[in-house]
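task queued by scheduler; priority normal; single chain, no ligands, no partner chains; default sampling; output format set to structure tokens
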Amino acid sequence: MTATENATPGAPIELRAVSKSFGPRKVLEECSFKVTAGTAFVLLGRSGTGKSVTLKLICGLIKPDAGAVFVNGEDITPLDSNALAVTRKHLGFLFQTAALFDSISVGENVAFPLRRRAEKPDPEIRNRAAELLESVGLGNEYDTMPSELSGGMRKRAGLARALAVEPSILLVDEPSAGLDPITSSEIDQLLLKIKTQQKTTLVIVTHNIPSARRVGDRFAFLDGGRLLAEGTADELTASENPLVRDFMKSQQAG
């Protein structure tokens, strides 16, 4: 398949009839959606409904059993590890736990993906890492060790590292997990800033409905491996499906 064959124009991410099972358990079944460039697409649903698996499919960490996953117009399903590495240069990933390396400083965590690329001299890499930390409110924490950070600060540091490669697409797994409401709102504001100022496309997995409403443009609700509803927050709130409707009206669904 060529880079643009069958891809939807203006949709940097598209899943088309994607199915995925782990042994006898069906996690996704003929799931289809597309994400418009520069918008925030929020995946909702109860725990274990395939949301995080969907993120892993988008970045090629796992492959679907059936269907196609398009990233920037290319079906990544048949790609080998070398070709996937090229695709991932356009992706950033904010993990639920921030996934910082505990053995190096916060600043060196942010610098890590830049050092792997080896495209810039060391002073320039350090300056860029310091700028990114400043942009997420951690300008004084370059030499701090991750173990010394609060949960919210770790999440900010993880976001700075995800942005180091200047991704056009940012995948975010549970940005509010373990955070108090005020810190959660601060992370949301950072994500909104990234979306509006850098025109970054966001795909966000969350259980937090207030957070989802703050950041999201379109929403998809997964349950039992199937996409039950897709649309704006108001459209899902008015859904004829009682599970979708009740979930959207909750304050902290999960």
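post-processing summary
- Residues 181-198 form the longest helix (18 residues).
- The chain has a mean pLDDT of 89.
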